[in-house]
Structure formats: C-alpha cells, structure tokens
Amino acid sequence: MDDLELGQRDRPSPDPKSAGYAQWASWIASDPDSEPFVFRKFDELGALNLLYLQSDMIHLEGQLKELDLEAVRQPDIDSINAARQWEALLEQCAPSELTENTNHAKADSKAFIRAKTKMKLILQLRAKMKEYHEALLLQSKVAQLQPPSGRVLRAAKQMFNQEGYTVIDGQARDYLDADDLDKPGYAQDGRPKIKRFEEQKITQLLGVITILVAIVFLVGPILALYLAQSQPVRLALVAVFTAGFAASVWLITNARRAEIFFGTATYAAVLVVFISNGNLTGAG
Q: Which superkingdom does the taxonomy of this entry point to (predicted)?
C-alpha cells in the first residue's frame, strides 16, 4: 500500500454527491490492498452481550432442572414417565377431555400444565442455545483479529480529518481513536497473516540443513579430536558431540527411541575407537 503513505493519497472528493459516510466508504474501498479497512471490534460490548446470553442460559437451565425435580416428586407414574420418555412428554402436551383409555392429560390438569411449560422451555432452549453458540464462536474469531499498524492508522486519521473537520460527524467521529480497532485479514505489520511456500523449496531447505548437520557431526569430531592435546579434553569432546548427535537425530529424523539409542551408541563407539589410538597427534 505505497500510495497510502502520508501525503501521497488524494483526499476524499469534495463532490456534494459523495459526502459523509458515502465519501469515507469510497475512500476506504479505493485502496487495492484494502489496508484502510479499519473498524472497531467493540470488545466490551461483545463481552457484555455474551454475559447476558450466558445469564439467560443459566436461568433457563435452572427452570428446566426445577421442572424435572418437580416431576420426579409427583406420585403419579405419568409425571415420572414424562421426565424419562420424550414420547410421554409429547402425549401429555396434547390435551384431551377424555380421562379413560387415553394417555393424554386433561387441558386443566397439572400434568398438562407442567408438560406444556417444559416443552415451551425446550423450544426456547433450542433457539437460545443456537444464538449463544453462534455469538461465542463469532466473538472468538473477532478476538483473533489484529490491530492495524501505526503507519496505516496514521494515514487513515490524516485522511479522515480534513482541514479542521472530520468526514463523519457525530459520535462516530472519534472511532479511529478507540483501543479496540482491528484490521480484518492482516497482521500487526499490515501484511497478510498467511504466507505460502512451495513444497519443493521447503524440501530443499530441509535437505541442506540435514547435510550441514551431518558434516558438523561427522567431520567436526575428527578435526576436534585430532587437534586436542590431552585425553580429558578428547573425552569431553566425545561427550559433547555424542549428546549433539543424539539431539540432532531426535529433531531431524522420525527415528524411534530404540533406534536413537542404537545410533548414538554406535556413534560414541566410533569416537572412542578414534581417540584410543595414542598416535593421533604424534604424542604418546
């Protein structure tokens, strides 16, 4: 967004056909990188909304539990069945004036009233649970949005304030000074969050790293042990290179523990054999 640097973008058009919100929206959308897309997240209101929804769910949960306990305390088997069987609850919600040869409760009976009340709460639960979970998921995504970079925010503020007045007036005139601004799709430095690399380049890079590690742990010990003058120093070098070799095998390869142990033991044995020759440096 090179043309968004301070002083390099034209101010919004003074054309009376494009003023206020329309004028500001036109300027925001005019940038090809969409960097001026800076808006408030309303973190406090989002938290307040979730708290209200959560309290509503807690109240509904308490009502359902109270109805279940009340049904269990009833002496009749129909009330207990309604708490245990969905079909029994549906039958009790269908009123009937018949009192014999039917499982339907009378329209003025307590069982019918309890069943209708519980069914109403169940239907409310479905709607409110959906609303609560959707708000929770959306808020979690909004919370991951990053604030705009200082460069982008300074440029936007300069364009927003025109010779002593703002493009948008009213309570929204100070929205760029809020602490909960976000920049959809961009990280704090104004660059896209996601970068893509070719798989072939990644494989080549890993191959180069593997070759360098192999050279360090194969050629390095030979040179170091050859130049070392005393046996204690050589033994210390063997310990260091053996530990480094085991760590590199664990980090770079998919070897199992037994394979790492066997490979490390073999590596250490080769180094020990190497230093066991007392004429390595011409010294006895």
A: Eukaryota
Residue 131 CB partners (closer than 8 Å, separation 6+): 53
Domain count, the chain: 3
- The answer as to whether 193 is a domain residue is no
Could you list the residue range(s) of the whole structural domain that residue 64 is in?
Answer: 43-143
Contact 230, 215 (CB under 8 A): no
Same domain, 13 and 151: yes
- pLDDT averaged over consecutive 10-residue blocks of the chain (284 residues)? 46 56 79 76 88 93 87 75 80 60 54 82 91 91 80 76 73 72 52 57 85 86 83 86 89 86 88 70 45
Q: Which amino acid is at 159?
A: M
What contacts 259, CB < 8 A, 6 or more positions away? none
| Residues 55, 59, 64: CA angle, nearest 5 degrees | 145
Same domain, 103 and 173: no
Token duo for residue 199? 């798989």
